[in-house]
Amino acid sequence: MGKKELLKKLVLVGLALVMVLALAGCAAKTAPAPNEAPAPAPAPAGKAQIKFSTWHVPASAECTTVWEPMLKELEARSNGRITTTPYFGGALGPGPDHYDIVADGLSDMGYFTATWTPGRFPLSDVLSMPVFVGGKEVAVDIGNAMYEKILHREFQDVKLLNLNGCIQAYFWTTKPVRTLEDVKGLRMRSPGGLQTYMIQALGAEPVFMPLGDVYLSMETGVIDGIVTCPQLYYAFKLYEVADHAVVASFGCVTEGVAMNLDSWNSMPDDLKVIVEDVVSNPFRLTGGLNVDAINGIMKKLADAGVNFYELPAAEADRWNAIFAEEVVKKWVDQMEAKGLPGKETLLMYKEELDKHGVAFPAFPKD
């Protein structure tokens, strides 16, 4: 090989080597070494602030044994991503306004009493029938099942988290009541709804007033008594002015927990799961106002001097026969006259009661 050819080959090899080095340099610039550029940090997890409202007084069993523990559980399960602010005792408005307080966004979540707005939730009054439910956890199981089956159509403007018919109400009076004849002419505070018709059917006069006014009204003789559940009777210390109670199946009011739709829709999906899990039956979750707790309140009332009178079977049959004709059947007829499925709803309710072993002594026999 001549010198010229050797020199030519050396030049070509050199050029090739330069090109390889140049390409390697470009590659080093365009492909960063591992860990040179860290991955973007994940977006911070979403949070939710929940304002919770109820008309229950702060010292009541509802607030101390159910709502406060429920709100703390929401915060704990979400690792602090849910924060809550309670508004107890009607701080945001009176009891009858609580559904709208939630629906309109004054609070994000709240406990409402549907019975206090007559005619607005007609089918849901079925949960107020004269039945004997022993604890709120059972009442919520029944109410939630009825909501899924048919009652959801009446709550389209909120996210309903639970629904219930409370527990059995009693006939509390300032003087003893033993028979239907003793009831005639008494003025009884009614929670509204079907309980009003029950009071009328027995021959008494229903009076509607805020619970906060009942103590003085019974003390001064303006009214003779009240139809309500044991926990409210105890919370408002009404045993101090009326120490007689007839143990009978009066049912109670239709209530529940609802959430504002905008508040619900803006909540991260994983927090929605927590809210539904905690609030779907807070009474079972916390143990507040369950069967054992209600029995405990009944004992406190007895210890405070309340005389509980169990109607003899024959007298109880008289009362229940009146309720069957004058309350249950009339409610079905009224619903059907409005084009609503009253009979179908009542039969669904009876089916749920049977599943939970709840007595409905006023269920029509024909």
Spatial sequence of strands, sheet with the most strands:
7-6-8-5-9-11
Distance between the termini: 122 Å
Going by CATH, the architecture of the largest domain would be 3-Layer(aba) Sandwich
- How many domain modules? 2
The name of the CATH topology of the largest domain is D-Maltodextrin-Binding Protein, domain 2
* Low-confidence runs of at least 5 consecutive residues: 10-34
What is the element string, with H for helices and E for strands? HEHEHEHEEHEHEHEHEEHHHHEHH
Secondary structural class: alpha/beta
CATH class term of the largest domain: Alpha Beta
Largest sheet, strands/sense/barrel: 6 strands, mixed
Oligomer: single chain
Our Rg estimate from Cα atoms comes to: 32 Å
Number of strands: 11
CATH superfamily assignment of the largest domain?
Answer: Bacterial extracellular solute-binding protein, family 7
Helix content: 40-55%
Number of helices: 14
Strand content: 5-15%
Give the overall silhouette: globular
Q: What do the pLDDT scores average to?
A: 91
Please outline the helices and strands.
Blueprint lengths: L2 H28 L17 E6 L7 H17 L4 E6 L10 H6 L5 E5 L22 H14 L9 E6 L5 E4 L6 H4 L3 E3 L4 H8 L3 E3 L6 H6 L5 E4 L1 H6 L8 E4 L7 E5 L1 H5 L3 H11 L2 H5 L4 H13 L3 E4 L2 H25 L4 H14 L11
Parallel strand pairs: 1-2, 1-3, 6-7, 6-8, 9-11
Antiparallel strand pairs: 3-10, 4-10, 5-8, 5-9
